[in-house]
């Protein structure tokens, strides 16, 4: 079943690349680090627009994690009868929105460090570092959860994020 369009897949993997490059390859504070952070923020901004006007499963309306949707999903997991969602499940949607918010917060805190008012201010640096560590932790949790949910739902979630097609066993 086709689920993730080219834009969503390119956004996802480009954002993964930006985050990994900034954390493990590029030197913090250097020009390449800053511009990669700005690129990550631009990607999130574009994804937010695509969430309003994009393809069916890319739209926020298709997967918005309302309290009722989250509770129904959690109840089904507790019963070990997971609901099949073509797009994001409610917990995946919460994670996606949280990760995007963290990227934007990182962009703002990183930008602030380059301004006259906040250059060298310790709490801004500490905030930026804490946000980066939280992003990495939640991204790892997201990856593990995708693997676990793929097994529970008997779907190939990772393959779907590469090919755009979600297969149910």
Automatic annotation (TrEMBL):
Pfam families (alphabetical): Ni_hydr_CYTB (PF01292)
Keywords linked to the UniProt accession: Cell membrane, Membrane, Transmembrane, Transmembrane helix
Compartments reported by the entry: Cell membrane
Coiled-coil ranges from the UniProt annotation: none
Cytochrome b561 bacterial/Ni-hydrogenase domain segment(s): 3-164
Transmembrane region(s): 91-111, 131-149
SUPFAM superfamilies assigned: Transmembrane di-heme cytochromes
Primary localization class, coarse: membrane
Protein name as catalogued: Cytochrome b/b6 domain-containing protein
Organism, scientific name: Acidovorax lacteus
